[in-house]
Write a structure and sequence with these properties.
Keywords: Lipoprotein, Signal. The protein has 204 residues and is of the alpha/beta class. It has a domain of 117 residues: Rossmann fold (3-Layer(aba) Sandwich). Helix content is 28%, strand content 29%. It is built from 5 helices and 5 strands; from the N terminus they run αααβαβαβββ. It has a 5-stranded mixed sheet. Helix 2 packs parallel to helix 4. It starts with a helix and ends in a 7-residue tail after the last strand. The N terminus is likely disordered.
Length: 204
Amino acid sequence: MKKSFLILASAFALLLSGCATQPSVGNTSAGSSGDMSTMQLSGDDFELAAETMINSLLSDPAFANAPAGVRKVVAIGRVKNDTALRIDTEKLTAKITRAMRQSGKFVLTTAVAAGGALDSMSKDVRELRDDDEFNQKTIAKKGTMVAPDFSLSGKIRQDNIQVDGKTRVEYFFLLRLTDLNSGLAYWEDEKEIKKLGSSKSVSW
């Protein structure tokens, strides 16, 4: 009987040890949740940051009560990657500008952007003027392009902090919307995502 009890106790201990979970990378505060499986920025982190920014922008008093049907033209300014990671910042801005357009209050220009036009065809087709192979009545006329009212710009920053033998990585998503006529920032916000894990998993 005693032998059977020892065998049963050993089996139960093995079962518990097999079910134990290993500590994983995660956020360090309830207000800065993100993808808990990696120290680097993931697709889920971008989704979270973009959703936060979209809700903040569209609920801001400067735009929440904007009259329907009056769309402001937005150009993509510089979004600086100040991290140790290779980041496609267009992934963040595209989701935001898509939501801005769907709100009915904004429209995106692809003819003007920091670093060059997102789509050069708006100007390329104008090079067809005086080309006899094209019907000149179908060529875009001078003075028909629309200049942007606002510029969407910002920065993604990374801070690495040593905490009790581990590394805490803090990512900051900062975006602002600037009135290009006055140079005044009508909106800006920041989303912070914190992660804590082994320094071996950190990109320096």
